[in-house]
Amino acid sequence: MERNIVFIALFAGLIAALGLLPKLTLISGIPITAQSLGIMLCGTILGAKRGALAVILFLSLTALGLPLLAGGRGGLGVFTTPWAGFLFGFPIAAFFAGYVMEHTRNISVGFAAGIGSIVGGIFVLYGIAIPYYMLGAKVDLGQAALTMVPFMPGDIIKALLASLIVGSVYRSRPNAILSRM
Amino acid sequence: MLAISIAGSSWAHQARVGFKMLALAVISIILFFVISWVALMAILFGVIILYLLISREVLLIGLSLMRPLLWVVCLILAFHVFRGEFIAGSVVCLRLIILVSLANFVTLTSRLTDMIELFLWLLSPLKRIGIQVGPIGLALGMVMRFTPVLIKRAGQLSESWRARGLKQTNWRIILPLFITVVDDADRVAEALRARGGIGK
Question: What is the ipTM of this complex?
Answer without folding.
Answer: 0.89
